[in-house]
Design a protein that fits this description.
The structure is a single chain. 20% of the residues are buried. A 7-stranded mixed sheet has the order 6-5-4-1-3-2-12, with helices on both faces. The protein has a 6-stranded antiparallel beta barrel with strand order 7-9-18-11-10-19. By secondary structure, it is of the alpha+beta class. Helix content is 33%, strand content 17%. The two termini are 70 Å apart.
């Protein structure tokens, strides 16, 4: 041990401890060593201004448009984390690992949403998205965070890019990338390059700096705990900005689905009747108002019959149970996954369902769930609940010597205890029954005492076996029979407290209770319902002031409470079935009943004495308060008028008002701390009122209002003049403050309102776990229910329930191969809905008309109009041509945004009408074959027409014959060969076609098929396209046009100058001498001519070859000369540089010599 060398202590150089030590050392020192502000001050003002502007711009880029978050802070709904990716990428493994991390439970078969508690104020709902385009669309609309899984060994797949484009159209929640299967890449360099390439592509799609996690391999069916821990930490601290569409619509992700349709009705209709189902889940988005329709994507619009608030199945830890900063292990075990059947227990509003998988014995199950534990515990019970209640006994106090047993029955008790076992369970009060329900099987041990336990208590010390909380006694004890002995139990202090002796013979009511001691006979204890009957019989023997004490106290309390408390009009209107007259008359009836009480006697000393009658507020639902004429008489007194005269402008300000100083502010002792007057003043007021002198308490109220007004004016003055910069704040801060103030007002408005009344007024709040009952649900949804497909219940706004023509701005996706065509069916995902419709594409033609397009333009937006459900403007959507997995290529065909609903502008398409002239005058012509009747001509009178050659004209009048012919005027004379056409616009209306995508009603959810194109139907059925003769392409044969020669009159030719005269030479009719003679060569001449031609050909060939060789020599010479020229230019450049350098030095020396050598002297010093 002595030879052991210890490591030297190295103090921390950075971190919290180092900072703390530095701060403690620096205390008391005047001079601090460290950052000197003057040393780092900017030297240049321009640089400081640029730096400040850059800082301001950087701060502004962090800001975003403030949005009101409608999620409650106290009970927020669980955050939806969706795990998305192509098949085989490891989605289920990641979900199991995350659930294991949060709950320490391993789920073998996961279906549907799984909710866990991740922190003291946060819960997470995990849901896995299968490889179906419909599921991707639904998950993209509700997910708060998306874990986008990518196979690192394969790369990005088409489904990943499709899902990202769906997210862009529906709000784009937070996305975290997760790379898996990296263990398949063996080389480190390849792994590094793969990570870098995938990260760069991921950042291109999301944003620069998007988080990308790397999961290496799988150990024991899960990912490594360290990597899952890092991922879960990022998920836990993630903050979510409210998305616009979700912030205005209520929605719910159903985590449980039940069919409530009567089985007999299903049997009679052979399973084809509409069903009534209930869905359970947490409300999200905004408040849901009962009565509004909901849309279930994949099913359709449904009516909501009822909504009920249930207890939270996965509650957050409250402040009492969680004192520590860290979440306790007990709360970590909370998990809610009804579709996955975790624990086997399902809670409903009126029942608890325990799912037991088959028959089992106590020792046959390892690690039983919660429901299985409950069934196993039931096997150990030896006695039923009724037997345990019958054997249990009650003590009034811990020191009581005899227990009580309470039972129901007639006045004469049966001695046989076995006959009373049936009624023993009714002997408990309501509180006992509640406690029995809560404590479960421990009734005999906690609430009741057996005979053996009682004997032990008598022998030993009497311990405190009573209740932990004081008991609420609800049984009236005012009339007891006087036959029993005084020594048994004393219920009163005097003989007058006991009732008469005639109660024995009374007929017992249904709610009689008998208190039976062990050795004595039973004692009748009447309940609250018997008070009135017993009170009438006991009036003769009991003093008058003791008669009906409870009714008198209740009436007095009601009068006092009614005078102080305002009526809850919401409860009276919404929760009461009484007519309005009865509701308004309740106050008057109560006042009349209270005033008709018994007169004051000597014995009636418990009557509340009121000096003034009780005022009933709000007698009528009216805006003006009822005026009492007696109160107006007080203002006729001159003293009262003089006391308030100085409060008006016309009054004299010499004498201040009572309770107000010279400045108009109230004295300190004029009011109490809470604004109410002291008790002594009220007593004085009562005495003065009796004497006839009236003083109005409203004076102090006026003074307080005046003081508050002055304080508000003073605050505004200070803000405007004293601190002008403090009052000015930027738009972002002002908006945030206004939103926070409005949320505080809303919270304070509904703070004390009953939850049921609050739900009727503002709707069911987000974060509430509700049970929603839907009616008229198609039977196929229940029969083909698959928990792996999400069920989203989206609330519809009132405007979204109607249908009409919707105009959108749309752009074909750059990755979609085909061009979209007008009147081709298109599947849209708009709002909560997915539906098929037939759009018409158009373009704005210089703000004059909406011109129809046959195809969508390339790389630019256009307009589209279709018939469908109305949607709010600026709602994004995406379009698909087909939803099946077998569709080749990229499936997202277009994206866009809603512009307007039921827009009045018409869509027009171009129409050309052609005709030919059949008679031509100077500037007028008769046109035929353009119209078919004189009526059509009359519609187009005044329309502009044009010939192919460009001569413009106008339609004038119709001709009597032939039909459809008309007279037209042109700006010039037209030819018979001209074609006349009229350019018109024809109005086009979109087809009213709406086909919702009902994928959840199918057994195979991916095989939904909507309307198909005609060519697709022919191709699937093997039919040939019918040929139309007029649609065939034929070769166009145009005969050449022959134009007549230009003829200039002789008189005009004579007047023209020579240069303009046509030079027309007359053709020579006679043949020349050479034309008349024919040349015939001799044989020798032919040979000589052939020889000359051969020699010329040889010479020509020699010259051509010589030129080619000469050109080659010249090209080589040119290259040589170019190299020499390049060398010469380099040398010349160097020589020029040397010369310029020498010239520069020379000029510098000359300049220094002229200055007298001052520069050299300055350099020496």
């Amino acid at each position: 041990m002595d030879s052991q060398t210890h490591k030297a202590h190295r103090p921390a150089q950075s971190g919290a401890k180092a900072e703390k030590k530095k701060a403690s050392k620096g205390k008391g020192k005047e001079k601090q060593h460290g950052f000197n502000e003057k040393a780092f001050a900017p030297k240049s003002g321009r640089r400081a201004e640029r730096q400040g502007r850059r800082t301001a711009e950087r701060d502004q880029t962090r800001l975003h448009v403030p949005l009101v978050d409608r999620t409650p802070d106290d009970q927020p709904p669980p955050v939806i984390v969706a795990i998305v990716g192509p098949p085989g990428v490891g989605k289920t493994t990641l979900m199991k690992s995350l659930i294991r991390r949060y709950t320490k439970q391993t789920l073998n078969h996961i279906q549907g949403p799984v909710t866990v508690v991740s922190g003291k104020k946060k819960r997470i709902t995990f849901i896995e998205c299968n490889n179906d385009l419909n599921s991707m669309i639904d998950i993209g609309k509700i997910a708060d965070l998306v874990l986008l899984m990518i196979d690192g060994s394969y790369g990005f797949e088409m489904e990943t890019f499709e899902f990202l484009n769906i997210l862009q159209s529906h709000g784009f929640p937070k996305v975290i990338g997760v790379l898996t299967h990296l263990d398949l890449i063996k080389k480190a360099a390849t792994l590094k390059a793969t990570k870098k390439a995938l990260k760069k592509r991921f950042w291109t799609e999301i944003y620069q700096g998007a988080k990308l996690f790397y999961l290496s391999g799988v150990l024991n069916g899960r990912y490594p705990d360290t990597e899952i821990l890092n991922l879960s930490r990022f998920i836990s601290v993630m903050k979510f900005r409210p998305l616009v569409f979700r912030n205005t619509h209520p929605y719910m992700l159903a985590d449980r689905f039940e069919d409530l349709t009567p089985r007999e009705q299903v049997r009679q209709s052979k399973g084809k009747c509409d069903r009534t189902v209930t869905v359970y889940g947490y409300l999200r988005g905004t408040n849901y108002r009962l009565g509004t329709k909901v849309h279930v994507p994949g099913v359709g619009d449904l009516e909501v019959k009822s909504v009920q608030i249930l207890g939270d199945p996965c509650p957050l830890p409250d402040a009492e149970s969680e004192k520590r900063r860290k979440l306790s292990e007990k709360k970590k075990l909370l998990i809610h996954a009804p579709m996955s059947d975790v624990g086997g227990v399902i809670y409903d509003k009126d029942a608890v369902y325990i799912n037991v998988p088959g028959n089992f014995t106590k020792g046959g199950i390892e690690n039983p769930g919660e429901g299985e534990k409950m069934v196993l515990d039931l096997q150990d019970v030896n006695a039923t609940l009724e037997d345990q209640v019958a054997k249990s006994q009650i003590r009034l106090f811990g020191s009581s010597s005899q227990p009580l047993s309470v039972e129901a029955g007639p006045s004469t008790l049966r001695s046989d205890e076995s006959e009373d076992d049936e009624d023993d369970s009714e002997g408990y009060s309501d509180e006992d029954e509640d406690e029995d329900d809560e404590q479960g099987d421990g009734i005999e041990e906690e609430d009741g005492f057996s005979d053996d336990e009682f004997d032990e208590d008598e022998e030993g010390d009497v311990g405190d076996r009573g209740r932990t909380a004081p008991r609420n006694v609800r049984r009236s004890m005012q009339s007891l029979p006087s036959e029993r002995k005084r020594g048994d139990v004393e219920y009163a202090d005097s003989d007058s407290d006991l009732g008469g002796e005639d109660d024995e013979d009374d007929d017992p009511g249904p709610s009689r209770r008998f208190v039976r001691f062990d050795d004595d006979e039973a004692v009748d204890v009447p309940s609250d319902d018997d008070v009135d009957e017993d009170g009438e019989e006991d009036e003769e023997d009991v003093p008058r002031w003791k008669v009906n004490l409870s009714e008198k106290a209740k009436a007095a309390f009601d009068d006092t409470a009614r005078s102080r408390k305002r009526r809850d009009w919401v409860k009276l209107i919404y929760h009461s079935s009484a007519p309005p007259e009865a509701i308004l008359g309740q106050g008057n009836a109560a006042e009349g009943s209270s005033s008709q009480g018994p007169s004051m006697d000597d014995d009636d000393f418990f009557t509340v004495a009121n000096s003034a009658p009780v005022k009933v507020e709000e007698e009528l639902d009216q805006t003006k308060e009822p005026v009492n004429p007696d109160d107006l008489k007080e203002w006729e007194d001159e003293e009262v008028l003089d006391s308030i005269r100085n409060l008006f402008i016309t009054g004299s300000s010499s004498q201040p008002a009572e309770g107000v100083d010279e400045n108009g502010e109230p004295y300190e002792d004029a009011e109490g701390d809470d604004g109410s007057r002291a008790e002594g003043e009220e007593d004085d007021e009562d005495e003065d009122a009796e004497d006839g002198v009236s003083k109005k308490p409203s004076l102090n109220k006026d003074a307080a209002a005046l003081a508050a007004k002055k304080a508000e004016l003073k605050r505004k003055f200070d803000e405007q003049y004293d601190e002008p910069d403090a009052a000015k704040s930027d738009f972002y801060t002002e908006t945030k403050e206004a939103m926070a103030k409005q949320q505080q007002l809303n919270r304070a408005e509904f703070e004390g309102v009953d939850p049921e009344a609050r739900a009727l007024i503002e709707g069911y709040r987000p974060g509430t776990y509700v049970r929603m009952e839907l009616v008229n649900v198609p039977a196929e949804m229940v029969e083909n229910f698959d928990p792996t497909y999400p069920i989203v219940v989206g609330g519809l706004l009132p405007a979204e329930e109607r249908f009409g023509y919707v105009q959108v701005r749309i752009k074909r996706h750059r990755w979609f191969a085909k061009t979209l065509k007008t009147n081709d069916p298109l599947i849209l995902s708009l709002g909560w809905r997915r539906f098929q419709t037939v759009p018409i594409y158009s373009l704005d033609d210089h703000s004059i008309r909406m011109r129809m397009l046959k195809y969508t333009p390339e790389h630019m937006h256009c307009y589209a109009t279709f018939y469908g459900p109305a949607a709010l403007p600026n709602t994004g959507f995406c379009a698909f041509n087909a939803l099946g997995r077998d569709t080749p290529g990229f499936r997202v065909s277009a994206t866009g945004v809603v512009l307007d609903i039921d827009r009045s502008t018409r869509i027009v398409k171009k129409l050309k009408l052609t005709g030919v002239p059949f008679k031509i005058f100077k500037n007028t012509a008769f046109i035929k074959d353009m119209f078919s009747s004189a009526l059509e001509v009359a519609k187009f009178e005044g329309a502009n027409i044009r010939t192919v050659s460009g001569i413009r004209g106008q339609v004038k009048k119709a001709l009597p014959k032939p039909d459809g012919a008309f007279r037209a005027a042109f700006e010039d004379k037209i030819l018979m060969s001209d074609i006349v056409f009229l350019r018109a616009w024809y109005s086009v209306q979109p087809r009213k076609f709406y086909n919702p995508v009902t994928s959840l009603l199918l057994s195979d959810k991916e095989k939904w098929q909507g309307m198909r194109l005609t060519g697709q139907v022919r191709r699937e059925q093997g039919l040939k396209t019918p040929t139309d003769v007029n649609s065939l392409y034929k070769p166009i044969e145009r005969p050449p046009r022959r134009f007549n020669p230009l003829k200039v009159p002789k008189k005009l030719q004579a007047a023209l100058p020579y240069a303009s005269k046509p030079k027309v030479i007359k053709p020579q009719h006679r043949q020349t001498y050479m034309q008349k003679r024919a040349v015939v060569l001799e044989p020798e001449e032919k040979k000589a001519l052939a020889l000359l031609q051969q020699v010329r050909a040889l010479r020509k060939d020699q010259v051509a070859r010589r030129r080619e060789k000469q050109e080659e020599r010249r090209a080589a010479h040119r290259k040589k000369v170019e190299k020499e020229e390049a060398k010469k230019s380099e040398k010349e450049k160097e020589r020029r540089k040397e010369y310029m350098r020498a010239a520069g030095m020379k000029n510098k020396r000359e300049a220094e010599a002229m200055e007298g050598g001052r520069s050299s002297k300055r350099r020496k010093t």
